[in-house]
Amino acid sequence: MAREMKIEIVKKETIKPSAPTPHNLKSFKLSLLDQLVLVVYGPMVLFYPSNVSEVTLTEKRSHQLKKSLSEALTHFYPLAGRIKDNLFIKCNDEGAVYVEARVNALLSSFLDQPNLEILKLLLPIKVESPEAATGCLQLVQASFFECGGLAIGVCMSHKLADASTLSTFIKVWAATTLGLGHTVVPDFSAATRYPPRDFSAQSPAAAVEMKIVKCVTKRFVFDGPKMRALKAKVTSGSVQRPTRVEAVTGLIWNCARKASKLSSGISKLSMVSQSINICKRVVPQFPQTSIGNLVG
Fold first, then answer.
1. Domain spans of the chain?
2. Which among 104, 109, 186, 214 is most buried, taking Cβ atoms within 10 Å?
3. pTM recorded for the entire structure
4. Residues 101, 144: contact at Cβ < 8 Å?
């Protein structure tokens, strides 16, 4: 009988930027788009296989991750601050949270049959935590498997960052960890184009809150042939070249509509909204390294 996979937290600490934030950068304005997003964390889990599991090597890797995280935070200084009144970030170098964990399993075993409930435990905080609006903006969890494999779970407050921002940060952090240096210069100009508004007179809580409901998460894998078949099936005169996202979104939406009708006995109106990156769709364009919620 296969043993139950468990994750044990062995260490939790605060990582501050390697250099203090200059006085003239101590206050960072949120953009209007930042103000309006949901109070959640944007999550990502990265997996790194390894065949070496010595304790000394694990300690070395953990130390290296913390050191490079500290250096990366210097370039992404707002991530080490705290949001105030949903208007700006006080860049006081309070730091990011670093969690170290141990997993009593092989990384290959987990990846062969991913357990979505276990996957959540590889993240340093719950995605829907209200801390995203008032607490730590950047949290990292390094989970070391018995084989030496590593899972790095990153949570970044959606109040400051979209998926593109998270990707930009990880690229810089990875390059710093490997000692490669980096040429990515984050752009913090979003608030100059979309200045924040003071919503205090309209609502005591300016942030958009997400209603917590009971959810079931399932994983469906579409291989190459099935994806091509699905795209061919949904191709029409009005949509001659559907993307993979459009094809899968349409399938899930259609299934959800049918399930709703079976449950309630009536057909209900529904709508799907797809976010897009507006960096290249505005004039003048935003740099691809722009930080913030540049989606529409």
1. 7-193, 230-264
2. 186
3. 0.87
4. yes
